[in-house]
């Protein structure tokens, strides 16, 4: 396996990486080092002449055991080779641990390249060129020139940071240097004792090569040079002159941001301090919430060890809404990190109503501070990668619906759609003009997806058409003015929009100006599909003032699920002069025969004329006061409303008091239904 020569050269090369300050006569290598500030590498360039024929090296490294023996018994495993390309796993034992890396090696003529794929050496590369030259005694073609170029990542174990990660760097360099020094005597013994393998290396098998390797490793010549190497003074692979300037007060690199939470579009200032100053930069690595490396950059510290750089979130620093970042800073053998995140203020969605009919216009507002991505312009949302707005009913939807910010840097976005009948098309892109077909009973949803979060609000599309709340009399005529003691009816129009029969409760609540409920009335009924009606409930106010009347349609009195939106009326009840109002009535003031007549009349036992005689008695005796401008007369020809008979029956039975009954009669007199003199 002559191409495995690359591997041993990698191993040996590490011993040449750091410049040494050897005294004259010392055994070992001396290679200059260059610092690459653009990609955080140390570049070592070496030229070494061996007094060994190139063919010998090629023959020796046909076998893997020579590779492992070249450097402190380094081991290769998982070897796969196909012609000039191969892969393997190299493990180099050191004092504390071992350096292990998967490698890929390629060969082109006498040029080699090794790529370190994994482990602490990952990302490092070595290029090697081997050529023939004369031997040390001048014999042609008996020597080998080796030119090496090794770019090693500074974050790897073999570097300045080795001090804290693997072993003492001088111990590692010592072992590597010794391995390369011993390569030359081993090769000469191989040439002397096994010349037949130089011309026909493939004729030997692996077990034979292993035996030869073990014999040569124990040869006296090899042991002698190893002893001489060990007896020399301890070498300094890290000369004092190459050490960086130490900054007083610091023992490691630090990195921090001013805030821990930012908004999308903000500038993030990174502040760093280093324990010493060299001509190399600080390596910065940005990882997002998914632990993905999204940015690599550098900062050069000033002479005091301070560095600063600003990154725009969403600009220089790629980021998503609600993202989180961890930033690692590496400088020599020191490493530190800091974290920050984008604020998640969420989003709120507001509708102008809590329920709609199938043809209503829907106005909605989304408040989303995070989506105010550029404070200098009016943003749009809903139809891009960072946010999606969808408006739906049970059967149709509009998606990627665009909304426009209400102004620069408000974070408030508004839009509208119109609900249309189920047989109409759904279309629109926003922020206005959208049409969404709807069925009675559907649920309307407006939701926005931001990053991985969904925000939603809902409203019902109601089952009843409910409109035209109004104040009427018992004949359905409008009552423009309401006075104290006047009984009126609160009516509204209902249409069942469902495709089935639907029962309902019609509920009326009256509140005074203080918001206190002074009356609650209800009735119930049922409507077939498409059927309509105008239910009405009576109300009489005994006190002047402003009142708010609310009428609603529920599924039932016990189930306040709305079938339609609530309607309200504002009613102002006015006082009238004493002569236009009835005086308080007590039971003793109304003769018993009048109440008897009322009961008989309600039962149909006496005619209207007999009942009216009782009414006339109340007026003549001053128990009931009516406007003097109205004339009295026989009411026999007038049709008395049925609800008056109901009141008469309840009054005769003691179910309502005198004042309530008299108020009803007074109302009929004032509107001219009953005329008395």
From TrEMBL:
It comes from the Archaea. This is Uncharacterized protein.
């Amino acid at each position: 396996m002559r191409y495995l020569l690359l591997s041993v050269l990698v191993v040996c090369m590490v011993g040449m990486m750091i410049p040494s300050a050897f005294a004259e006569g010392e055994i070992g290598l001396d290679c200059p080092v260059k610092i690459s500030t653009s990609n955080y590498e140390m570049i070592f360039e070496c030229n070494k002449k061996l007094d060994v024929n190139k063919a010998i090296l090629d023959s020796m490294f046909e076998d893997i055991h020579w590779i492992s023996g070249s450097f402190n018994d380094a081991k290769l495993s998982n070897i796969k080779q196909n012609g000039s390309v191969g892969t393997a796993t190299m493990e180099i034992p050191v004092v504390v641990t071992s350096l292990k890396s998967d490698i890929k090696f390629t060969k082109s003529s006498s040029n080699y390249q090794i790529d370190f794929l994994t482990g602490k050496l990952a990302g490092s590369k070595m290029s090697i060129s081997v050529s023939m030259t004369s031997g040390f005694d001048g014999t042609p073609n008996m020597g080998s020139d080796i030119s090496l170029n090794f770019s090693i990542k500074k974050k790897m174990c073999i570097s300045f940071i080795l001090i804290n990660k693997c072993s003492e760097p001088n111990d590692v360099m010592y072992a590597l240097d010794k391995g390369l020094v011993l390569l030359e005597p081993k090769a000469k013994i191989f040439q002397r004792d096994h010349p037949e393998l130089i011309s026909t290396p493939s004729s030997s098998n692996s077990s034979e090569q292993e035996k030869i390797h073990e014999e040569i490793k124990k040869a006296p010549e090899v042991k002698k040079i190893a002893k001489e190497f060990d007896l020399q003074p301890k070498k300094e692979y890290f000369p004092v002159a190459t050490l960086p300037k130490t900054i007083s007060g610091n023992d490691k690199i630090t990195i921090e941001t001013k805030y821990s939470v930012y908004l999308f579009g903000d500038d993030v200032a990174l502040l760093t301090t280093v324990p010493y100053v060299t001509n190399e930069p600080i390596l910065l690595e940005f990882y997002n919430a998914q632990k993905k490396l999204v940015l690599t950059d550098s900062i050069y510290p000033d002479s005091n060890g301070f560095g600063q750089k600003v990154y725009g979130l969403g600009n220089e620093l790629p980021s998503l809404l609600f993202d989180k970042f961890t930033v690692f800073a590496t400088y020599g053998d020191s490493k530190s990190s800091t974290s920050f995140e984008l604020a998640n203020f969420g989003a709120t969605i507001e509708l102008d109503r809590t329920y709609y009919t199938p043809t209503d216009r829907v106005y909605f507002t989304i408040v989303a501070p995070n989506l105010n991505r550029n404070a200098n312009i009016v943003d749009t949302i809903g139809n891009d990668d960072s946010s999606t707005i969808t408006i739906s009913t049970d059967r149709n939807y509009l998606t990627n619906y665009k909304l426009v910010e209400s102004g620069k840097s408000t974070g408030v976005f508004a839009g509208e759609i119109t609900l249309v009948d189920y047989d109409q098309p759904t279309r629109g892109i926003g922020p206005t003009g959208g049409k969404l077909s709807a069925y009675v009973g559907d649920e309307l949803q407006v939701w926005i997806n931001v990053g991985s979060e969904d925000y939603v609000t809902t409203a019902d599309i109601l089952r009843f058409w409910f409109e035209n709340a109004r104040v009427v009399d018992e004949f359905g005529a409008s009552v423009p003015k309401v006075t104290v003691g006047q009984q009126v009816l609160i009516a509204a129009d209902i249409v069942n929009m469902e495709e089935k029969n639907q029962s309902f409760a019609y509920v009326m609540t009256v509140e005074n100006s203080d918001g206190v409920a002074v009356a609650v009335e209800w009735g119930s009924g049922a409507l077939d599909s498409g059927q309509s009606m105008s239910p009405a409930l009576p109300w009489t106010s005994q006190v002047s003032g402003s009142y708010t009347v609310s009428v609603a349609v529920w599924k039932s009195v016990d189930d306040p699920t709305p079938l339609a939106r609530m309607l309200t009326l504002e009613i102002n009840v006015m006082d009238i002069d004493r002569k236009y109002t009835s005086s308080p009535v007590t039971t003793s003031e109304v003769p018993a025969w009048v109440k008897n007549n009322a009961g008989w009349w309600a039962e149909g036992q006496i005619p209207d004329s007999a009942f009216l005689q009782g009414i006339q008695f109340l007026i003549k005796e001053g128990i009931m006061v009516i406007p003097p401008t109205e004339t009295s007369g026989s009411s026999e020809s007038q049709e008395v409303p049925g609800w008056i008979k109901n009141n008469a029956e309840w009054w005769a039975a003691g179910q309502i008091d005198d004042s309530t009954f008299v108020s009803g009669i007074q109302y009929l007199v004032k509107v001219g239904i009953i005329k008395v003199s």
